[in-house]
């Protein structure tokens, strides 16, 4: 029973890692797009 819970917890951690990676990439893209837009307006 505890092994199943450990596997479930590991899956949640794995999902969080993917979510963190997606959030980081999204944030970088937003910064880059904002910078390009700001430079193009100058």
What can you see in these coordinates?
The protein has 42 residues and is mostly helical. The chain has one domain. Helix content is 95%, strand content 0%. The protein is built from one helix and no strands. The chain has one helix at 2-41.
Gap from first CA to last CA: 62 Å
Q: How many beta strands in the DSSP annotation?
A: 0
Radius of gyration: 18 Å
Q: Supply the number of structural domains.
A: 1
Helix content: over 70%
Largest sheet: none
Overall body shape: rod-shaped
Mean pLDDT: 82
Name the structural class: mainly alpha
What portion of residues belong to β-strands?
A: under 5%
Our count of helices gives: 1
**Poorly predicted runs of 5 or more residues:** none
Order of helices and strands: H
Short structural description:
The protein is mainly α and 42 residues long.
Any descriptors?
42 residues
Provide the fold topology.
Layout: H1 2-41
């Amino acid at each position: 029973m505890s092994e199943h819970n450990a596997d479930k917890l590991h899956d949640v951690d794995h999902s969080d890692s993917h979510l963190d990676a997606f959030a980081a990439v999204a944030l970088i893209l937003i910064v880059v797009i904002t910078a390009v837009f700001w430079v193009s307006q100058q």
